[in-house]
Amino acid sequence: MDRTQTFLNRFNELEQFLRDDTTSKREVPFGNLIGRAAQKNAAVRRHERDLREFADLRNAIVHEHPRGHVIADITQEALDEFDVMVDQITAPERVYPLFRREIHVYREEEALTSAVKDLWESGHSQVIVRVDKMLTLLSSLGITRWLGSQVNGQAVDLADASVGDALTFEEEGGIAFVSRDAPVDEARELFLSFPTRHSQRLRAVVITENGRPTEAPLGLITASDLVELDG
């Protein structure tokens, strides 16, 4: 099978997937399918411009020159790019179990020294705390702010400090939640869009069964995790 036919087959596969996913009838144009799918599919939103360009290429291929000549072809590089794109849309990689990890959930009354030791040993920049049944985040920056408020002379006494003490110095936000079935692109999109909606940057996306902050954490994603994945 040549490249052009392979491309057309994969394009048809993608078109049928989008039509089924949006419950659209056969007469709905491909451009409209993209717009509908983009409302709920992060991968389609991510590749929307490229999808429209590949649709133009597809149209150029299937509509022959009046003299019967094919007026467009696809390179192997472009075909490989389209293959990856179709796979990311039709069979996206899920956040779980990819980012599964054991997470200790702290209570407000636990010793702050335990959280500080955890950060040091793990190399992470935040721990997860449950407050009134809700999961929230305590970052190294929040702990630093608390330390600054406690400076008395040359020493800071941590002996009686609790996680809750430092949590009062944590900026609101910094954490988001996704369900275990969420595509990786959904988490990626959260990191890209979060700064426009909050004063604090997104520090971690926590994976729970249904994406609710009251559920037990199953895993955690940071921006560096996604950079490493894309690397």
Order of neighbouring strands in the sheet with most strands: 1-2-3
The main sheet comes to: 3 strands, mixed
Query: N- to C-terminal separation?
Result: 32 Å
Query: CATH homologous superfamily of the largest domain - what is it?
Result: CBS-domain
Work out the strand percent: 5-15%
The value of Rg in angstroms is 24 Å
Query: How many discrete structural domains?
Result: 2
**What is the level-2 CATH architecture name of the largest domain?**
Roll
From N to C, what is the helix and strand string?
HHHHHEHEEHHEHEEH
Q: List how many beta strands DSSP finds.
A: 6
Number of helices: 10
Give a structural overview.
- By secondary structure, the protein is an alpha/beta fold.
- It has two domains: 3-92, no CATH class; 97-230, CBS-domain (Roll).
- Helix content is 49%, strand content 12%.
- The protein has helices at 3-21, 30-38, 42-62, 76-90, 95-98, 112-122, 140-150, 163-167, 184-193, 223-230; strands at 105-107, 126-131, 134-139, 175-179, 204-208, 219-221.
- Helix 6 (112-122) links the parallel strand 1 (105-107) and strand 2 (126-131).
- The longest helix has 21 residues, at 42-62.
- The protein starts with a helix and ends with a helix.
- The mean pLDDT is 90.
